[in-house]
Automatic annotation (TrEMBL):
Cross-referenced Gene3D superfamilies: 3.10.310.30, inorganic pyrophosphatase (n-terminal core)
Name of protein: Bifunctional oligoribonuclease/PAP phosphatase NrnA
Pfam families reported in the protein's UniProt record: DHH, DHHA1
GO molecular function: nucleic acid binding
Taxonomic superkingdom: Bacteria
Residue ranges constituting the DDH domain according to the UniProt record: 32-176
DHHA1 domain: residues covered: 249-334
Species this chain originates from: Senegalia massiliensis
Amino acid sequence: MVFTFQNLLIVLKKMRIRMKSDILKELDRSSKIYLVSHINPDGDSIGSLLAFGKSLKHKYGEKVILLKSDKIPDTFKFLNNMNYLSDLQILKAIDDNSTLITLDCGDLNRIGAVNDSIKNFKSIINIDHHKSNNLFGKINIVDSDASSTSEIIFKLLKDNSLLIDKDIAEALYTGISSDTGSFKYESTDANTHRIASELLEYNIDKSKIIFYLYQNRSIETTNIFIEAIKKIEFHYHNKIGITIITKNMMKEANASVSDIDGIVEFIRDTENIEIACVIKEIDINKYKVSLRSKSYLDVSQIATHFNGGGHKKAAGMVVEGNVEKIKYKLLQLINKKLR
């Protein structure tokens, strides 16, 4: 463990995660505790936010505030305690001794408009599992070997005798299941399964979680899938699959950002594909790129070329420029790493 005047760094690698007394002191002394997860939220960001937020509310009461950094996808609205989420207008009056806890965010850009108020917080506690995390907090709890941020939160709660009830267990199970692709990804290990088993002991409704996560695709999602799949291009002996989703395609399908979730995995799961790319237009000459690999290629290395990040087999970035030039550069970089 490394200590500096500006930064207390806790980087956790294959070890039991404990909320050290320094963190408890930070929360105890805070007049307000704000929690936020990343924009374009997924199951892990929402699950860890709701779970940790409810547990901290049980300990600290009304001084705990959960922030809604972005619209919540309909997929996750079955989770309880959504009413805890506050709109960002609440940040207009931040107490001097307030702490911000960020969840599942590799850097501060991921917290969206909350970053505009970042200087008003006395301290930041950064909890994440992305290896590209840039350790921006006063206190950083970053375990890149964890399957998800929800897994880290479970360990924090359990190791420190903080509240875990049915709602919290359901949120954490949702986060772990969604971030491991229903326990299929390489990040899933024996410890992940042990945690999932413990969460099931809280009598959570696993069938309900499976239904909403995997068996309830909207018509809009299906329509944008069809259009994106029509435009897939295969390159380098079918080892790369890539598609571009334009704003016009989204409009015609009446699709939202969350409706394109799963397209990049669909491409990756095609025979012979090693890496899948989805390039989504988010503004004029501005694109969000999602990358997935199947076996050996580290897509986080590709993402870092564009100031992005992520994991070995799942990464992303936002890139500005002409889309055909972006695609060409991507293909050139990937080709150098293919076997």
